[in-house]
Write a structure and sequence with these properties.
Elements lengths: L9 H5 L14 E7 L2 H4 L2 H12 L3 E7 L5 H9 L6 E4 L13 E2 L1 H6 L4 E4 L5 E4 L2 H10 L17 E5 L3 H14 L4 E5 L3 H15 L3 E3 L4 H5 L4 E4 L8 E3 L5 E3 L22 H28 L5 E4 L8 H8 L4 E2 L2 H16 L1 H6 L4 H15 L1
Parallel strand pairs: 1-2, 1-3, 4-6, 7-8, 7-10, 8-9, 10-13, 13-14
Antiparallel strand pairs: 3-5, 5-6, 11-12
Helix pairs in contact: 3-14, 6-7, 6-12, 7-8, 12-14
Length: 374
Amino acid sequence: MSRDAGAAGVVDRLAPHIGNTLPPVRASFVTGIVGDQPSKYAKTPPLWNAVYRELGWDAVSLPWDVTPAALPGFVAAARQSPEIAGFNVTNPHKIAIAALLDDLDPLARQIGAVNTVVRTAGGRLVGHNTDGQGTIDALTLTLPGTSAPFMTTIEGAKVVLLGAGGAARAAAFYLGQAIGTKGRLRIVNRDGRKADDLAAAVRDAYGIGEGAGEERLAAWLADATLVANATVKGQSGWRRNADGSATQMEAYSALAPANPASVAADRPLDAAAAREWFIASRSDLARHAAAALDALAALPAGAACFDMIYAPLETRFLRQARLAGHPTQNGKWMNVAQAADAFARRVCAPHLAAAGIAPTDGYRRAFEIMARVW
């Protein structure tokens, strides 16, 4: 389980394109996760590194903080780094990165979003998507520490999916297939046109799908059996806007529009910046809170609430839903399931084969280890 090339130089090659500082790396091969600020919240490095340790592999997983403007340079540098076996992709790059890769597998091409990139034996970067299957597994499998699935079945469910970005696209296609034509899939997004486009693509594939802007949310919640959040509303940490300014989303619920203020790009994101952000966002937070509570009140008793976010483990959306008597589940198990899939069936599949470990066994071992160390 080794490579001829060491990984000592990979940090230097990527450094001009990443915003976080990494220690020197010496390993047989490198994996990681690229996003806006995975160094602040991503679980991928500790999960993958735990599997590497237990398997006795000389490998490492790293977080790479990359702005949208720096993404093309990062991908080019990764392509020139044979030490990188592959990497995961998180917000906000899941859609944008697809056009920068050498190829996409058929499912990722259909979804139009990538959460896993694999380096082939020939050095090409190929995009895959494991988010959708992770969503279905999180909702329907009996998971460690539980006595029953979160939902006994998805078939025939009336689902409201919040968001139309990368994670939402993956979930939409898998949900559309699992729900079947006796159910309903309604997609709500701030930009209603993106929701319409995604719904149309799912409808072409599986016969169901409606899309609309946020003005339709309360009405569509009225008979929902599952609400799934695939937006960044509720996620912890600072988020960089396209112009370099920064904002926060943790104070918001997924159930109402959010228009937070931003702080300037050139200032430290410290306690003073947080105070400035809070004062400037106060009126929007108050308006948002009332709208989110009204939307939650429209949701039928017993409807399930699922949030793909795992930092924090209980978002404002889930906390309020729990207090209102709804069953809730965060993004932990989705993240574990998609990570185990990406590890065993994608990025590390050749290394598992070289070690004599079948993909099914590799997935099971990776899932168990990742679940244990979460």
